[in-house]
Specification:
With about 325 residues, the protein is mainly alpha-helical. It is built from twelve helices and no strands. It has one domain.
């Protein structure tokens, strides 16, 4: 865990130093955020804020992996980050060039995410990450089931992080806590290699949070959110704690469920159950400040992290 701590601090320092010049370059290049008209009225003032800042996560992860990791566990997380990040970068570029908040078509994005999930599931199978610990139970080998499970898990994680990234500091703080916990879980399982990349991404997110807290000076864009969501699932798989992820990432789960419930409720009853989805928008429209929303969601994530650490059992043969 000493190496993981060092890499956490290193990535934190790099992010703190690299984001100011990156913000200036993005602003000069006029790569600014486009705000959807149907969102909260208060968010319109964010238009033009530099976006696609998540590209720095990808760069930090690649450099650190090549210099200090090179393990299959780290490779799975890095591939998840890059595959989701590239899709997100294309999405960001389509939005910026088109001058609209509409990026890649939904079916195109879903198809790519499904293909990515299948590939990552296959690699997890080939690289020996079949055993995933069940809460209060053994860790049965998933075998070929890793591929269809991977399609669902990686796609869901990517979209969940993307949905949560809609309020200053919210996804950055929650994501940093989740990745830090995944690093600790890997250490508990005596799998130090699986702790390295989650530690790196946790540090990078904390450094980014300094500039993303309200009022945000930069956004990660889909480049960051889609990449981090995929990497989050990859880190859970590499550590053998995939089935714990819905507990640990409860905030991301709740954000996703809120959208599903809102859409399903409106289609069946003609009424909206929330003032607006995802869930953080409901609280914005209920009078909560962005700082209050972020801190509250961080607190829930911290509680979920402590619960996960308390009940976690290292993966072992069934």
């Amino acid at each position: 865990m000493t190496t993981a701590l060092v890499l956490f601090l290193l990535s934190l320092a790099i992010a703190l130093l690299a984001y100011p010049p990156l913000i200036r370059r993005l602003r000069q290049a006029r790569i600014g955020q486009l705000i959807r008209e149907e969102g909260p009225a208060g968010h319109q003032s964010k238009a033009g804020t530099p976006t696609a800042g998540g590209v720095l996560f990808l760069l930090i992860a690649v450099v650190v992996y090549v210099a200090a990791d090179r393990s299959p566990a780290g490779g799975l997380v890095l591939l998840g980050l890059l595959s989701g990040g590239v899709v997100g970068l294309l999405d960001d570029l389509v939005k910026i060039r088109g001058g609209t908040n509409l990026g890649l078509r939904a079916r195109e994005k879903i198809a790519v995410q499904a293909l990515t999930g299948a590939l990552l599931g296959y690699l997890a199978l080939r690289w020996g990450f079949q055993r995933q610990a069940l809460p209060f139970d053994a860790a049965p080998a998933l075998g070929a089931w890793l591929i269809p499970i991977g399609i669902l898990a990686f796609s869901s994680g990517s979209n969940a992080f993307n949905l949560t990234d809609g309020s200053d500091g919210l996804s950055a703080g929650a994501g940093a806590l989740v990745f830090a916990t995944l690093a600790l879980l890997a250490g508990m399982a005596h799998h130090p290699a699986a702790a390295l990349m989650p530690a790196v991404l946790s540090g990078a997110l904390l450094g980014y949070l300094v500039y993303n807290r309200h009022p945000a000076r930069i956004f990660m864009g889909d480049t960051g959110s889609l990449g981090l969501g995929t990497a989050m699932v990859a880190a859970a798989v590499a550590g053998g704690f995939l089935w714990y992820l819905p507990i640990l990432a409860i905030v991301f789960v709740a954000e996703t469920v809120s959208v599903i419930v809102q859409v399903a409720g409106f289609k069946t009853t003609g009424r909206r159950l929330l003032k607006m989805s995802p869930l953080h928008h409901h609280f914005h429209l209920s009078g909560w400040s962005e700082n209050r929303v972020a801190v509250s969601f961080w607190a829930v994530t911290l509680a979920a992290a402590l619960l996960t650490l308390a009940i976690a059992r290292p993966p072992s043969p069934a």
